[in-house]
Amino acid sequence: MQSSSLTTFNAQHNTIKDTSVLTSLSKLKELFLSRNEDRYDDIDLNPLQYLCQLTKLHIAYCGAFNIEILKPLTSLEELDISGCTNMGTYRLENQQKLIVLNLSNIKDSNVKFDFLKQFEFLKELIQQQRD
């Protein structure tokens, strides 16, 4: 089943559900920036370009939070959503590069992850290092 929405948010029971890819990615970008002390100079980038350049996404300790990423963010190597409480759903599909997924101390969460693709990627990475 195809979906045009990449992300779905529910923060402190204020539900934001977008069908526009760029709008949804903008919301994720805003959340990412609001939860980190670092500020970035590339704020004018198209949100999709911005997210596809990220190697680390840190949205830990943000309270109630729902996210779905249904298409690959190919540069993402580390996703840290540790310490989030009351997290309804986290789902990540078609992610080929993710190396670290930090879900420690997550409470009340429903996590779905495409482990088969992750395993295939790691197997390929190990093989490349051996060659």
What does this structure look like?
- InterPro entries: LRR_dom_sf.
- This is Leucine-rich repeat domain superfamily.
- The chain is α/β, with parallel strands linked by helices and 131 residues long.
- It has one domain (8-130).
- Helices cover 28% and strands 20% of the residues.
- It contains 3 helices and 8 strands, in the order ββααββββββα.
- The chain has helices at residues 21-34, 47-53, 115-130; strands at 8-11, 14-17, 56-58, 67-69, 78-80, 90-92, 100-102, 111-113.
- The strands form 3 sheets. A 3-stranded parallel sheet has the order 3-5-7, with no helix packed on it.
- β1 and β2 form a beta hairpin.
- α1 packs across α2.
- The protein is elongated and about 45 Å long.
- Residues 1-23 and 35-43 have low confidence and may be disordered.
